[in-house]
Amino acid sequence: MCELFGVTSDRKVELNKLLRLFFEHSSEHPNGWGLAFFDDGNISIEREPVKASDSHYLKNRLTGEILSSRMMAHIRRATVGEISFNNTHPFTGRDDTGRQWVLMHNGTIFESSELTRYQCFQKGSTDSERILLYIIDRINTLHREDGDVEAPEVRINVIDDVVHKLSEHNKINLMIFDGENFYIHKNEAGTLFRYSHNGTVILSTKALMREGWEEIPQNRLLVYRDGNLVFEGDPHDNTYVMNEENMKTLFMGYAGL
User: Fold this and answer.
1) Is 234 in contact with 47 (CB distance < 8 Å)?
2) Which of 30, 116, 220, 221 has the greatest CB tally within 10 Å of its CB?
3) What is the set of domains in the chain, with CATH numbers?
4) What distances in angstroms separate CA 112 from CA 31, 48, 115, 127, 169, one per listed residue?
5) Residue 6 and residue 143: Cα distance in Å, rounded?
6) With helix as H, strand as E and coil as C, how does the chain read?
7) What is d(CA 175, CA 203) in angstroms, rounded to the nearest whole number?
8) pTM of the model
């Protein structure tokens, strides 16, 4: 599986120490790393399909001061899709209104008729990229039918419905950004934590410091905006629990069988 890291804050904060701690986990997640920053109205994505600890670019990047109020980071352990640039998180795309979306995923889609058709359109071969294409397609359909997807609550309702649908029989730990809203979801126990302090929320698959972290609520969508929780969805019953069949599927995918 992969690991996720995210920040949402009402101001720019220094992140070098936390990112170094996060990327130290790359020994167990050697198949790629990524960064995405969402400051000052711009979205900047940096990624490589190599182990984070082996990346000269990332090592140099972390020596300079990193300040951000909204960002994501990812380290990949491939389960679906080969090790390549097009399969490296984060994934990004634009809807028909020009809004840019960014998505990172820690999980696996074992069953989903909704995502199958996107295999013909995606650049890579991951189920994670297909989730993003599905979301953008849902937004575009709504835009064609109603014309108004600029209201934040409209997009929130779409993502809330998506996580309810896709989480059945699947592991769906997601971080998504739409230029305004920062969406968080997990449906497996012990797989996403947050640290909140003075207008800043840090999110990570594993707690990066000894104290102050709490597990985020499970099986419900959380939406942040500049460090503030603005939406907490109704819970669903689709808790993911690893079983023997899923373990076999993951092993075969990782082994390329």
Assistant:
1) no
2) 221
3) 3-255 (3.60.20.10)
4) 25, 28, 6, 10, 9
5) 29
6) CCEEEEEEEEEEEECHHHHHHHHHHHHCCCCCEEEEECCCCCCEEEEECCCHHHCHHHHHHHHCCCEEEEEEEEECCCCCCCCCHHHCCCEEEECCCCCEEEEEEEEECCCCCCCHHHHHCCCCCCHHHHHHHHHHHHHHHHHHHHCCCCCHHHHHHHHHHHHHHHCCCCEEEEEEECCCCEEEECCCCCCCEEEEECCEEEEECCCCCCCCEEECCCCCCEEEECCEEEEECCCCCCCCCCCHHHHHHHHHHHHCC
7) 9
8) 0.93
Say how many residues make up the chain: 257
- pLDDT tops 90 at residue 45: yes
- 251 contact partners, CB below 8 Å, separation of at least 6: none
- Structure-block tokens of residue 193: 């934590």
Give the span between the Cα atoms of 190 and 188, in whole angstroms.
6
**Is residue 187 a contact partner of residue 238, using CB atoms and an 8 Å limit?**
yes
Cα separation of the two ends of the chain: 17
| C-beta separation of 198 from 207 below 8 A | no
Do the Cβ atoms of 113 and 127 come closer than 8 Å?
no
Per the CB < 8 A criterion, the answer to whether 80 and 108 are in contact is yes
**Residues 222-252: tens digit of each pLDDT:** 999 999 999 999 999 999 997 656 555 544 4
